[in-house]
């Protein structure tokens, strides 16, 4: 299916890998993928924002023109169940969870807040929240805010910026004071994977609950939440699930925990008898109690398309191609870029890597801008990381090869030196 490491790194080998790719047919289901010209745009930022599926405009138009335009308020009979219905699609087709354990709602930050507070309440007498010092800022900010509001202590666990979290380091931070652990399955900077099952076992042995952030993994790497015994999780739908900018997030609550937890935002969609309009809040049964207010119906129409495509392709097949694509990035970086001071800043073991690779160089910001001007879309992460996310559903091996060839030219000819530094950009 793909070039073997350290063997044939020719463009012809990349083309041969594309010819053998069982997911090749999915590429045509995304917009902007029909240009095969030598100057075509090479999009390697699917881990920040996924491409637009071809089916999405029609799905959103149906929601606007038929369901809203013609059905008007009568369409609520269908809309009101969207959060659970799409949640069940995510559970079965993407997350390895059971029906009734996933809900599409709100944003990742709000969902994290809801689950973190509910989990902390479920561990009375414990006053410590644990998170990773190198985790995505929103996660750390939410943890810090909840701790301040509740008079708790935050215990930040150090992680290697490239290799990710060492489970042994985490284990040393767990004791009888820890109520909740918040961690990402995939490190946003380096793509380093954390073993969900192993960390869940460690936390459970200490009596703590874990809230997983699956944002950089959902739709790209398996989560297998039920098999891992996971307690709680949140994640976004606009990256590898291709739900569109600002798409609603999802939350997962293990079935056995649902009726033990009470989330802090008491909205009418989480009320047991929603349309009774009663004077007091009584949480609904099951995962519905984690809903809050009116769902973003139009945005959810787009999310459903992305989730269905991902489920159809199969997360295991997507992950296998992701390992191969990122492996090609690593091999080409070693072969072409190392002599110019660019090095791989992600785990080299494909089993420990998500669907993106970070390269490090002191002028990574300038390299990023030079690449964008040459038709390659990566992104930059502090302090000196050039991040490449070849989304497996629509990125070909030859796209990776051509993007790396353009990067090789930029690095070798020194053209990046004409770009201002990031500090100049900020000031």
TrEMBL record:
Enzyme class, UniProt record, top EC level: hydrolase
One example of a Gene Ontology biological process annotation: L-tryptophan catabolic process to kynurenine
Positions of modified residues (N6-(pyridoxal phosphate)lysine): 239
EC number: 3.7.1.3
UniProt cross-references to InterPro entries, sorted A to Z: Kynureninase, PyrdxlP-dep_Trfase, PyrdxlP-dep_Trfase_major, PyrdxlP-dep_Trfase_small
Keyword tRNA processing tagged: no
UniProt key word Hydrolase: yes
Binding residues for pyridoxal 5'-phosphate: 108-109, 136-139, 213, 216, 238, 268, 294
Keyword tags: Hydrolase, Pyridine nucleotide biosynthesis, Pyridoxal phosphate
Family statement: Belongs to the kynureninase family.
Oligomer and partners: Homodimer.
Name the UniProt record assigns to this protein: Kynureninase
């Amino acid at each position: 299916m793909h070039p073997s490491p350290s063997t044939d790194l020719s463009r012809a080998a990349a083309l041969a890998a594309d010819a053998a790719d069982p997911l090749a047919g999915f590429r045509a289901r995304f917009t902007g993928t029909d240009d095969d010209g030598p100057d075509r745009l090479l999009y390697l930022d699917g881990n920040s924002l996924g491409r637009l599926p071809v089916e999405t405009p029609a799905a959103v138009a149906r929601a606007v023109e038929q369901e809203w335009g013609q059905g008007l308020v009568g369409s609520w009979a269908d809309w009101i169940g969207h959060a659970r219905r799409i949640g069940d699609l995510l559970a079965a087709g993407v997350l390895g969870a059971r029906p009734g354990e996933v809900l599409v709602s709100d944003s990742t930050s709000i969902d994290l807040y809801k689950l973190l507070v509910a989990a902390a309440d479920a561990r009375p007498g414990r006053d410590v929240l644990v998170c990773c010092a190198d985790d995505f800022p929103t996660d750390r900010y939410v943890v810090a805010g909840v701790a301040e509001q509740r008079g708790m202590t935050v215990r930040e666990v150090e992680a290697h910026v490239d290799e990710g979290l060492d489970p042994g380091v985490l284990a040393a931070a767990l004791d009888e004071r820890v109520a909740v652990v918040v961690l990402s399955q995939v490190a946003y900077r380096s793509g380093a994977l954390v073993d969900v099952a192993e960390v869940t076992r460690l936390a459970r042995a200490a009596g703590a609950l874990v809230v997983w952030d699956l944002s950089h993994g959902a739709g790209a790497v398996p989560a297998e939440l039920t098999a891992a015994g996971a307690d709680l999780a949140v994640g976004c739908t606009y990256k590898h699930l291709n739900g569109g900018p600002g798409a609603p997030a999802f939350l997962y609550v293990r079935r056995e925990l649902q009726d033990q937890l009470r989330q802090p935002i008491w909205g009418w969609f989480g009320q047991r008898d929603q349309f009774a309009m009663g004077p007091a809040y009584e949480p609904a049964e099951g995962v519905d109690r984690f809903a809050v207010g009116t769902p973003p119906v139009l945005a959810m129409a787009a999310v459903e398309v992305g989730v269905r495509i991902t489920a159809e392709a199969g997360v295991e097949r997507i992950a296998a191609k992701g390992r191969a694509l990122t492996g090609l990035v690593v091999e080409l970086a070693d072969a072409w870029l190392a002599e110019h001071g660019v090095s791989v800043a992600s785990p080299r073991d494909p089993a420990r890597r998500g669907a993106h690779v970070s390269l490090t160089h002191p002028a990574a910001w300038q390299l990023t801008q030079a690449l964008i001007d040459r038709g390659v879309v990566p992104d930059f992460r502090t302090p000196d990381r050039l991040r490449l996310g070849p989304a497996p559903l629509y990125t070909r091996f030859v796209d990776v090869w051509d993007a790396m060839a353009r990067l090789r030219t930029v690095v070798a000819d020194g053209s990046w030196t004409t770009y201002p530094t990031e500090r100049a950009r900020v000031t």
